[in-house]
Specification:
The complex is a heterodimer of chains A (about 110) and B (about 120).
Chain A: E1 9-13, E2 18-23, E3 33-38, E4 45-50, E5 55-56, E6 61-64, E7 70-75, E8 84-92, E9 100-101, E10 107-112
Parallel strand pairs in A: 1-10
Antiparallel strand pairs in A: 2-7, 3-4, 3-8, 5-6, 6-7, 8-9, 8-10
Chain B: E1 4-7, E2 10-13, E3 19-25, E4 32-38, E5 45-51, E6 57-58, E7 67-73, E8 76-81, E9 90-97, E10 105-106, E11 110-114
Parallel strand pairs in B: 2-11
Antiparallel strand pairs in B: 1-3, 3-8, 4-5, 4-9, 5-6, 7-8, 9-10, 9-11
The chains are: A mainly beta (about 110), B mainly beta (about 120).
Chain lengths: ~110, ~120
């Protein structure tokens, strides 16, 4: 079973920051948090991952709470092309080089003009 | 970035036939590959984990004789759906890992329709 809980859907205005929350209260000490997104009928696209420190790359920022029981993915300036299903996943077993990704239901983000 | 390619991207077959889907890592050696299936409006469901040179590990409820997985090289894994039936129609997606960055890369998916 997935170890994450996300809201089923969210809306965001174009140009604004999109903040997508995720709860993972049963996460273990060596389990990483991964974020992917999927646009209809395509394979998931990697966004970012982290263990306990906040992470930033060219796509997004990942904020992980100090107790690691939740995290937030931030898309700083959402565009219409960011409309997708966003999956927050805890990688089970093997740290960040092994282990598998068990997908939950994700959040369907709709960016509106 | 690293690329994972699947072939074919879509396939239509008759009930009772077998279909093979290939998953290739194009610019890295994939020590582990994963196979997922996805039904319309649902999330991805992990089917099996495949390590190069060893037998695949199947998730609970996935028939290993129905979904044959071979990972004979560090750049290729195949999924064969044997004696396919209409209920096997789905979107099959592979992912691969092998680098030290921690990223898992997904293929574009293969849509199987069984008539």
């Amino acid at each position: 079973d997935a170890k994450t809980t996300q809201p089923p859907s969210m809306d965001c205005a174009e140009g604004r920051a999109a903040n997508l929350p995720c709860n993972h209260s049963t996460i273990s000490g060596n389990e990483y948090v991964y974020w992917y997104r999927q646009i209809h009928s395509q394979g998931p696209q990697y966004i970012i991952h982290g263990l306990k420190n906040n992470e930033t790359n060219e796509m997004a920022s990942l904020i992980i709470t100090e107790d690691r029981k939740s995290s937030t993915l931030i898309l700083p300036h959402a565009t219409l092309r960011d409309t997708a299903v966003y999956y927050c996943i805890v990688r089970v077993g093997g740290g960040n080089q092994g282990g598998k990704l068990i997908f939950g239901q994700g959040t369907e983000l709709s960016v509106k003009p | 970035g690293a690329v994972v390619s699947q072939h074919p991207s879509w396939v239509i077959c008759k009930s009772g036939t077998s279909v093979k889907i290939e998953c290739r890592s194009l610019d890295f050696q994939a020590t582990t590959m994963f196979w997922y299936r996805q039904f319309p409006k649902q999330s991805l469901m992990l089917m099996a984990t495949s390590n190069e040179g060893s037998k695949a590990t199947y998730e609970q409820g996935v028939e290993k004789d129905k979904f044959l997985i071979n990972h004979a090289s560090l750049t290729l894994s195949t999924l064969t759906v044997t004696s396919a039936h209409p209920e096997d129609s789905s979107f099959y997606i592979c992912s691969a890992t092998g680098g030290y960055t921690g990223e898992l890369f997904f293929g574009e998916g293969s849509r199987l329709t069984v008539l």
